[in-house]
Every structure is written in C-alpha cells, then in structure tokens.
Specification:
Layout: H1 19-33, E1 39-42, E2 48-51, H2 53-58, H3 74-80, H4 84-87, E3 88-89, H5 91-109, H6 114-125, H7 127-144, E4 155-159, E5 167-174, H8 178-182, E6 186-192
Antiparallel strand pairs: 1-2, 1-6, 3-4, 4-5, 5-6
Helix pairs in contact: 5-7
C-alpha cells in the first residue's frame, strides 16, 4: 500500500541550543555509525535527527520524493512514499497501521505542532488514508490490542537490498539515553535477525492466528 502526498517539503528541523547539546549529538552520531544495524534518532514528529550508514544503505534504492524521504521524516516515508512497501515487508499491517497509531498519539499530545498538523492535512487529502485513520485504525486496534502499536520489541519484516539477505525479520529496539530524552528525541534500532539461528522450542503451543490478524486498512462494510 503506497500513498502520494502533495504537501510542502518539511521545514528544516531546529538545531538544539547550547554547545554541549550540539557536541553531544556530534559524538552520538559517531557512536550511531559504529552500530552494524540500521539505527536512527527521531523527534516527536518523526523528523530524523541522526541516522547511521546501515540505515542509509537499507533505503539506498528508494526513489526521490519531495516530502517523504526516509532520512527526512520516517513517518512520512512509511505513510506516503510509493517505494515504502519495497523495503518495509507487510507494509500495511506491519508498518502503516502501527505508525498511524503513533501519529494519533502524537497529535493528541502535541495538537498545536505545525509539523504534525501538516501531516494530518496530507492524510485528510488522501481519501483512502483518511478512511484508514478514522475507520481502519480503531478497528485494527480493537482487533489486535493496544500493544500491537508498540515499537520497542516489535518484530517486523524488511526487504533488504542485499540479495543474500532478502526478506528478513528485524526486532525494533528503543534504547534512548537520558540526554536524548531531555532533548525530546528517541533512538530506534532495527536489529536484523538471522533466521538460520536455532530457536528454543516454545513451552506451550502457540494459538493459531484468527481472521482478525489479517486486516485490510479499511474494514469491509457490514452486509
């Protein structure tokens, strides 16, 4: 599922005030780039403050877009970039709906934020996306539970540009030190999982998935 938004390019993100904060971010960027997995730091709008080389490599084949490049605003990329599904596996259920849920929470908390208002306007301009936000999202949350939108610990699919990897699972780890929190930022790392690793047998059999686990963005109308 891919969407096209026609809004203006996001305004440049503000630079944190104070030499100490700027120096910290410069040093943190060095640390981030030493991480072998795709990792990024975002603010409450999902503007990307820092991203490492592994993140850039993951999305290197993504085509240009005026407002939704992954290194500019990750939320916009997930929702609006036509190439998002080529990298983000199970794009609709695995990425789109959880990110819409996070956006809903951000709007409720930062209702007067101009950047979030612009995203909300772009959602409203796309009939399918607006229906997903107003109707599909509440239906999905009721079906799968509030915790389904939680990022930390979630296992999602990626289509890696390295053909030796192909479609691979990643576990999203939110690991944000206090200084980043104080700056209003969050760090997320996509830990690529080696599916060839032997896994421990579960202690009890898992329940089969119900039909509610396979949802479209907009629920089918009742007969």
């Amino acid at each position: 599922m891919a969407y096209q938004a026609g809004g203006q390019r996001p305004a440049p993100r503000p630079v944190p005030e104070g030499r100490e904060a700027q120096a910290y971010l410069q040093d943190y960027a060095v640390l981030l780039d030493a991480v072998p997995f795709p990792s990024l730091v975002v603010d409450h709008r999902w503007d990307v403050v820092l991203a490492n080389g592994a993140f850039e490599s993951l999305f290197r084949a993504v085509g240009p877009h005026p407002t939704a490049m992954p290194s500019d605003n990750f939320l916009r990329f997930v929702l609006f970039h036509p190439d998002a599904g080529s990298v983000l596996g199970e794009h609709e259920a695995g990425w789109c709906l959880p990110m819409l849920a996070h956006f809903k929470t951000a709007v409720e908390r930062y209702g007067h934020d101009l950047g979030l208002q612009t995203i909300r306007r772009d959602i409203a301009q796309d009939p399918l996306m607006e229906a997903a936000f107003r109707q599909g999202l509440p239906h999905w949350i009721r079906a799968v539970g509030e915790n389904a939108a939680e990022l930390d610990g979630a296992v999602r699919l990626l289509v890696h540009p390295d053909p030796r990897r192909g479609t691979v699972e990643c576990r999203i780890v939110a690991e944000t030190p206090r200084t980043l929190q104080d700056l209003g930022y969050t760090r997320l790392t996509m830990v690529l999982r080696d599916t060839r690793r032997p896994t421990a047998a579960p202690r009890r059999p898992r329940r089969a998935r119900t039909a509610g686990s396979h949802l479209t963005v907009v629920p089918a109308p009742e007969a």
